[in-house]
Amino acid sequence: MNFKINNKRSNSYTEFYSILNYIYENLMKAINIVLSKPHHELIKDRRVCKYQSLKNTSMDTIKWLEKRPHLLEYIDGRNIPTQALQVTKKVTLDTKENRFLKFMIITIIHKIDSFIRTYTSTPWKKNEDIINKLNTMKKAINNKLKTSFLKDVGSDYRNTSMSLVFNMASGYREIYKYYLMLQKGLSINSNIFSLSMKELSLLYEYWCFIKINSLLRKRYKLISTDFITINRGGIFVSLKKGVTSTLVYENPNTKETFKVSYNAIKSRKVSNIGSRTEGSKTVTQKPDNMLSINKLGSDKAYEFVFDAKYKIDTSIEYQKSYGGIGPKEEDINTMHRYRDAHSI
Predict the structure, then answer these.
(1) Residue in 268, 262, 230 with CA at minimum distance from that of residue 248
(2) Burial class (CB in 10 A: 0-12, 13-18, 19+), 317
(3) Which domain of life is it from (predicted)?
(4) pLDDT for 229-246, tens place per residue?
(5) For the purposes of burial, counting CB atoms within 10 Å of the CB of 228, is it exposed (0-12), middle (13-18) or buried (19 or more)?
C-alpha cells in the first residue's frame, strides 16, 4: 500500500484547506526552527581601495598586484601600491536555499489569498470562522516573512537546484514536505481498491496495523518510522506484505518506548545448555503485528502479538466439538506457535 504526492500541478481548494488546517502548527514550528538556525554561507567580498585604506592583505591581494605592476610606485626604497585589492570574508544568509525557502512561503501565502478570494466570491452562505482562521494563518506566516532575515533575501530562485539542505536540515526538510503537500496534495498510488476477495485478509492486516497505531497516537508521541520516505518525487508511505515496517512511540511522562512492527521477523532462539546448543522448537515466525513495550528498569521487552484472524469455522463437526462456531483450529494453532516462538 503506497501513498505519494500527486503529480498534478495543484490540488483542490477543499484539499488545500484540509491539509493546511492539519499541518499549520507544525509548519510554524518548522519556520521558527529555520529562523533560529538559518542556513548560511561564507563569501568573499572583493573591492579595490587606496593603499592607505587597506586593512589587511592576502594571497589574493598579492596575485592581483602581480598582474598590475603599473600600480606600484618606488617610494623611499620600497614599492608602494597606489591601489590594492582587499578581500574580506563575511557570512551571508542570501543563499539559494533561503531564496527557495522564501519562494515556498510566499507561494503558500498566495494560495491562502486565492482560497479566500474564491471562497468569498461564491454565491452560497460563507462560514466566517473559516475566513477568519485563514486570515489569522496568513498574517502569522507573513509576519515571519516580514520580520526576519527573509525580508532581505533575494527573490530569484530560478537557478536553485535541490540541495541536501531540504533533505537533511531540520526545519528546511519539514517546510519542503509541507509545501509539496499543500501544492499537490496526497494520493493513493497502489492497487488497494482492486483487491480481490482472496486478498481481503491482506486488507484486514493493514487495517489492524493502522488501528493499533491510531490508538497509540492518541496518548503517545511518535518518535520514528522507517516506511515514510521523502525524495524529489514527493512523499511515499509504503506498507508491504513480507517487509518489516516499524513505528516507535514514547510515553511523554515516563519516557518508556513502545514499538509497533508489521511483519516483524521472530528468529529461532539459540541457547547454550551445558556443552550443547539447543534451538527453539519452532521455526522463524513473522506475525502480522507485534507491540513491544520496554519498561524502565527491565531488560526484557513485553511483546504482544496481534495477528489478523477473521475466518470462522461453521462446520457441524466444529460446533459439536466446541459448542458453537468459532475461529479455525489452524488459526488458533498459529497463535500458539507465535507464543512458543516468544517463550521458548
Answers:
(1) 262
(2) exposed
(3) Bacteria
(4) 655 555 555 666 777 888
(5) middle
